[in-house]
Amino acid sequence: MTPARDDLSAMTPHFTKDSAYEREAHEFVCVLAQKAIELIGAEGGCAGIRRPEGLECLKYFRKGEALPLECCFPLGDGLPGWLILHKSSYLTNDAPSDPRIRREFYQTYGVRSVLSTPILDANGEVIAFFELHNRLNGSGFDDRDEQLMLLVSQLASFALQKALAYSRKVAVRRHEQDLRQSEERFRLLVEGVQDYSIFMLDPEGRVSSWNKGAELIKGYEASEIMGRHFSCFYPEEDIRSGKPQKELEVATRDGRMEDEGWRLRKDGSRFWANVLITAIRDDSGRLVGFAKVTRDTTEKMKAQALLQEANERLANEVRERTEAQQKLANSESALRQLSLHLLRTQEEERRRIGRDLHDSLGQYLSVLKMKLDSVADSSDMPRQDIRECASLAEECITEVRTMSYLLYPPMLEEKGLKSAIPWYLDGFTKRTGIKTSFEVSPDLPRPLRDVELALFRVLQESLINVHRHSGSPSADIRLLEKEGGLVLEIRDKGKGIPADLERSGQDSVGSLGVGLRGMKERMQHLGGKLELTSTSEGTRVTATVPIEQSSSGLAK
User: Fold this and answer.
1) Is residue 181, in this structure, part of any structural domain at all?
2) Phi, psi angle pair for 206, to nearest 5°
3) Is residue 185 part of a domain?
4) 272 and 307 co-located in one domain
5) I need a labelling partner for 376 at 20 to 30 A (CA). Which of 339, 345, 359, 469 fits?
């Protein structure tokens, strides 16, 4: 049904569904249809009453039987819908070809002839209808039958209008009763609510109703507050600024107004309130007052304030810790830079001392030995004493040369790590008696100078620890490329790290002395790492530097 038809049906008379008078009216038109079937001599027919949605039929009568039908015809739909529009009777003796006739009638019941008559009220609107099908003698309906049915419909109209008027009256009374009951239930609900202050204001803002919750929250009894302006609930500063009147203006303009702020109780104490003011209008849109709902949220506000204070304290602590961590990180970075600077200074000092020992003191000792050899051949002094002095000078020369090479081996700078390691291992074995082996990848690229020096120092420090602590008879050294890194591995077969050092929780590298800790810092600076693993069968030190860091720009 279109909106226009909805409006039309709302303006026309109809029976209220499921009312006793509706059922009686329906039974009346059904009896009327049966009498008309007998009067005309028809095979069957149907009848229905007006509803808001159209003409409704509940039964179909045929040869003395009442069959269920249950269908409704909106405005303009089918023959009953045509009656609503045209408000006149309809006669056809060619039902199968008439589009207004329901197909079910002529397919199921063989309907050929139809005579349908509306029942009109005093204003000419359709309130019911009855419809006859097929004469028993096989002939069609004629004008005489139509005039007779119009007369019957006029007689039925009077009775149905009485029933319709009474049905309306009862419906209005029932609606008024339901409305009073609803208002009473709402009043009891509002008065029973104690957690919310719910009351009404007239258009000027004076209190016109009061509930138990308002009495508990604000402290006023109904007799004390009725008729007073609601601005008495506001602090003096809000009254001076005109806040109460502004809130009513906002509610009037927007339909509602919500606010939070301080409000006053009867005893002058303050509470933090959540306030909702809603404008109330009648059906014509005229403002008739305001509904005001107030909730005491003081505890919630205090809890939020405490939570905010705790969050601020936590944020300050986090900020302070972050700053402390940043300072610590800066200190660690500064210490690391200082450590690297000391290591570089140490290397430079080693190089200078080594060169001084070799170039200066070594030369002096060499000259001394030559002089002693010359004196031994020509002097009258005891030859044995002079030879002993020459031997001591030769040992000093050897020791000075060894010390200068250990401080900064010139072979490392001249020929690289692959040549310096075998030279160093040969001297280490002669000095300590510890056998060594060296394995190196033949196509390994030569690292940068800093990388070579760092790996050589790791080798020195590791073998010093093997000699001093492990008790191992041998040490195996490997220099290879592995998983994108340059790897130096030193493995012994000694007693491993002492159990008390492992239980102390020290860094495994730090437990073996300051030298390896410095090498660990140097490896990290080069983007690499230094690892130490130890068991009862021996200890392994592994230094790893990324290939791109170790050999950038150098030939193999």
Assistant:
1) no
2) -90, 145
3) no
4) no
5) 359
11 CA to centre of own chain = 53
Handedness of CA 189, 192, 197, 198 (dihedral sign): positive
The residues near 84 (Cβ < 8 Å, ≥ 6 apart) are 50, 54, 55, 73, 75, 76, 118, 126
Torsion angles phi and psi, residue 314, rounded to 5: -65, -40
At 305, the pLDDT band (50, 70, 90 cuts) reads confident
Q: Are 13 and 152 contained in the same domain?
A: yes
Lowest mean pLDDT among 116-120, 400-404, 550-554: 550-554
Q: What is the CATH number of the domain that holds 461?
A: 3.30.565.10
Token readout for 93 is 């003796």
Q: Which helix (H) or strand (E) holds 545?
A: strand 538-546
Residues 50 and 129 in one domain: yes
Give the contacts of 260 (CB within 8 A, at least 6 positions apart).
Answer: 272, 273, 274, 275, 297
Do residues 266 and 220 touch, judged by C-beta distance below 8 A? yes
Domain boundary among 296, 315, 338: 296
The whole-angstrom separation of Cα 145 and Cα 133 is 12
Both 197 and 276 in one domain: the answer is yes
Question: 3-state DSSP call for residue 13?
Answer: coil
Q: Look-up: residue for tokens 């009656």? A: 83
pLDDT one-digit tens code per residue, 26-60: 888 888 888 889 989 999 999 988 888 899 888 89
pLDDT in tens, 185-196: 666 665 656 678
- Helices marked H in 41-89: 78-86
Instruction: Please count the other Cβ atoms lying within 10 Å of the Cβ belonging to residue 132.
Output: 28
**Do 39 and 13 sit in the same domain of this protein?**
yes
Indicate if the pLDDT at residue 208 is higher than 50. Answer: yes
> What is the domain extent for residue 85?
3-171
For residue range 444-482, what is the model confidence (pLDDT) as tens digits? 888 888 888 888 888 888 888 888 888 899 999 999 988
Strand boundaries in 380-515, DSSP class E: 435-440, 474-482, 485-492
308 and 456 housed in the same domain: no
CB 261, CB 238: distance < 8 Å: yes
Nearest to 98 by CA among 119, 112, 110: 112
CB atoms within 10 A of CB 285: 6
Is the residue at 342 inside a domain? yes
Instruction: Look at 13 and 314; give whichever has higher pLDDT.
Output: 314
Question: Would residue 532 count as lying in a domain?
Answer: yes
d(CA 468, CA 406): 17
Q: Are 83 and 129 in contact (CB under 8 A)?
A: yes
Q: Indicate whether 336 pLDDT > 90.
A: no
DSSP readout, 193-219? --SSEEEEE-TTSBB----HHHHHHH-
Q: Which two tokens stand for residue 239?
A: 């009254």
Domain count, the chain: 4
Q: In what order do the strands lie in the sheet with 287-296?
A: 197-201, 287-296, 270-281, 256-264
